Structures are given as C-alpha cells and as structure tokens.
Amino acid sequence: MKNEGIEMRRNGMLLPIASLPSPYGIGGFSKEAYEFIDLLEETGQKLWQILPLGPTSYGDSPYQSFSTFAGNPYFIDLDTLAEKGWLTKEACEASDYGDNESYIDYGRIYNSRFVLLKQAFLNSDILSDEKFTEFCKANQHWLPDYALYMALKNQNDGKSWIEWEEEIRLRKPEAVECYKKELEEECNFYEFLQYEFHEQWTKVKEYAHKKGIQIVGDVPIYVAFDSADTWANPELFQLDEKNLPLGVAGCPPDAFSATGQLWGNPLYNWAYHKKTGYDWWLKRIAYCFDLYDIVRIDHFRGFDEYYSIPYGNETAIDGAWMPGPGMDLFRTIEEKLGKLNIIAEDLGFLTESVLQMLSDSGFPGMKVIQFAFDPNGGSAYLPHNYPENSVVYTGTHDNDTTRGWYHSTDKATRDFAKEYMNAQRLDEDDLAWDFIRLAMSSKANLCVTPMQDLLNLDGKARINVPSTLGGNWTWRMEKGQFDEETVKRLKRMTWLYERLPRELKRK
C-alpha cells in the first residue's frame, strides 16, 4: 500500500483489538475485525489505532507484557483454527468465556482459551510446515527465549523468573540447554502460537491496506520486569549482580497524584545500548514496523530524561530525573531504518529539552481535547493552538470517556468549555460529538477518536484508570452498536472538515 504518511489531513478511530465484538469473550483477528475495517472505509476513516499487541501479564494491561516482541494468543481467531481442521466449532462454542458481551472476563478466558489452543497445536502437525520453520528462523533473536521463558513460567506455577532456581534464573548455559530439552514440546507450543498470531494479524493488516486503512500501533517505552526481555537480556537493564533492579520507572508526584506513579518497570542501561549501537532498539522498532504502519511511542519524555525510583520503595516520592539517550537514539534509528512514521506521546509536563527533542525529531505530538479547558486560559491543548504536525484526540485509553469526563469535572471547567465552544449548554444526547467536532475542526493533520466517544458512552465504558489494579481493560464494543445513523453522521462530519479521502470526496 502506498504510504500516505502523517502529513495529510486524516481521521481515524481508536479501538483496541480486545474491544472488538466476538462470541469468544474477547476481540481478536476474527470476521469482526474485517467488518470493523469495512466500517472505517465506509465512514471515510484512514487510520485504525490499537493498543500494544503483546501477551498481557497480571492486571491484564497491554503495557505490562511478557514480551515486547510476542503477540497476545487471546487474539488468535478460533474459527480460523476450526476451518483448518485443528479444532471443532462445537468445542469453540462450548467453552466458557463469560456471559457479558460488553465485558472481558480474563479469568474465564485464561482457563478456556489455552485448552483450545493447545488442542489446535496438537492437531496441527505444525513442525513439518516449512513456513513455520522459516518464521522461527526469521525471529531467532527473540522467539526461542520467549518460548522457553513461558514454558518455564508454567512449570513454576506462574512465578516471576526472579523466583526460579538460581541456575535457570541466571541462565547458566547448562541449565538453559537442559530445560530446552525437557520442555521442548511446550516451547514448540508457544512458537506455534506466535506463528499463528503473526499469520492471522498479517492477513488483517493486508485487508486494511486493500481498504486504504493504515494501522497505528503503540509501543510502550518500558518492558515489564517479569518478561522474557528482562530474563534473557539482563545486560540491557539497570540490574545488580542478582539481576534485581537498581531502580524502577515511574512519574513524580503532581496535581493528580500526591505520591506519584510507581510503574515498577526496570530501567534501561543506556550506556550499554549506546555501546552496542542501539542494536536491541533497532530490532524492536523494525519489528514494530513489520506489525504497524505508524507507531506511537509511549512516554516520549523518558528518552530525554527518565524518572528513577529506588527499587523497593512503596511510592514514587523519592525518585530522581536521570539523562536518557535523547536524539542520539532517534538519529541512529533514522540512519539505520530510514525516516519512519512515528507519533510521540508527549503528554504531561514537558521541559525545554523535551520540547527541543520533539522539534528536532520532527515527530508529531499529541493533543487531547479533555486537557484543554483550564479556566485560567492559555492551555496548549486548546484547538486554536495546535500545529498541523500533531495528532488530536478527544481522549486516550488513560482518560475517562468524554461524556464521563464532562460530568465528573468541575463546574469552572465545564463553563469554560461551553464558553470556548460558544454553547449555552451541551446536549446530553450529543455531548461527545460536540467535542469530536472541535477536534475534527482543528488544524491538526490527524484526528483520532476513541470508539467510546463516537458512541457517546458514559464513564462505565472507560477502559483504564492509571495507577489502579483490577477492573481495567475490560470494555468491549457490542455487535451492531455502531448503527447506520452514526455511520452517516461520522462520514458527513469527516467530509465537512475536509478529512475524507480523495476518492470519497468525489462520490
């Protein structure tokens, strides 16, 4: 597909794969994904933004993954496996995925999904497939380590690798070889899952390209401590002689949190990365652009300065800002991989050096409508302040829905919003669309709207509350929820603010 880049005026939707409708408890690479792409085309949207695709760990957050390279097995379409003869349709339908079509029950899915996937593997004869062999060879730099890590994790009742026996925890060569032989079938199973994930996702992406849709992926800056990345490559991180973190990631106290945010991710050993020519990062970014057309890099500020919190602290209060690689990393990426379509997540308090790094990179930053309405005025998030080289959102995966936000924010903020929009009142039945209109009418080249706002849903549809554990990442779109009236409205507004593709403008 011709890459139209991010300089052209375009619209898109934000909808995680997991939030797609599905009869199997969670969205995936099923016919509903293809139907959603059809919807994007019909309404004149050119972008589909998703969340990270990695296998989720405890808390089900896509930003805490067992691997930065691996894909989430939950997204593998069971009907496709049945069509290959590896499962029966009856077995797929008989499993318990939960009984709420607007909610993901991860506990039930975990217990049901892997039984079916293991059965598919045993029926597949995948080891004799040349394409599978080629896939494994092409991904040698991460796949064997990930497969062994997952097999070991299962053998250790799901415990973090830091709790394993010392020989394998520290990856003594003899122990690694011994466990590879002992757990060979389980390792093959996890390699099979990654192959099938990649095959199915590639077909979804190719279908999107045929429809003129680009995929916007999301790359967390950090990896989880309990991950194959950290276990297999401890030299990449700031760890002590026992492979325990010297410091962990987070954010300092601010107006939203008196104790800051303690994320707990291991910090990078940037001196080592620089010494190796950022080899691991080059592999990571190249792999991302195999999966996506445009990549949003989370927590862009962390490349300029990162917040280091002593390991073991219970809050983020006593952390300190430390220097990151800055533009040296991004110059290396451009030199080795070419000029890439990257979006910088530049939200929050930004120093002059971060702003300079953003300017030097040329990456578009993010503008969020919900952050705009400071009653004192002067917010950089007010639409009249947006540069063309930016991406505007009504909200993100970390925000409340626009309707939920409006009703929970203070009166002064609501009054300022109404004054800015020259509206005496905002219609409850139309609330989110007033803010969508504001986003679309801005000068920002790209406008991406969360599906919850297009459906004008209240705070019950919020997908994540940062720094909380439990109850997040569970919202799902119901089949048929995006009705014909909404289709017509979105397409008309997209045309009105000149964000329609050329071919649709002529119709």
What does this 3D model show about the protein?
With 507 residues, this protein is an alpha/beta fold. It has a domain at 365-476. Helices cover 39% and strands 11% of the residues. The strands form two sheets. The protein has an eight-stranded parallel β-sheet. It has a four-stranded antiparallel β-sheet with strand order 5-4-7-8, with no helix packed on it. Strand 1 (10-14), helix 1 and strand 2 (47-49) form a beta-alpha-beta unit. The longest helix has 27 residues, at 184-210. The model has no long low-confidence stretch (mean pLDDT 94).
Unreliable stretches covering 5 or more consecutive residues: none
| Major sheet characteristics | 8 strands, parallel
Radius of gyration: 23 Å
Relative strand content: 5-15%
Please state the overall shape, judged from the principal axes of the Cα atoms: globular
Total helical segments: 20
| Biggest sheet, spatial arrangement of strands | 9-6-3-2-1-12-11-10
Q: Into which percent range does the helicity of residues fall?
A: 25-40%
Distance between the termini: 22 Å
Please supply descriptive tags for the structure shown above:
507 residues, 8-stranded parallel sheet, 20 helices, 39% helix, 11% strand
Put the structure in a nutshell.
With 507 residues, the protein is α/β, with parallel strands linked by helices. The protein is built from 20 helices and 12 strands.
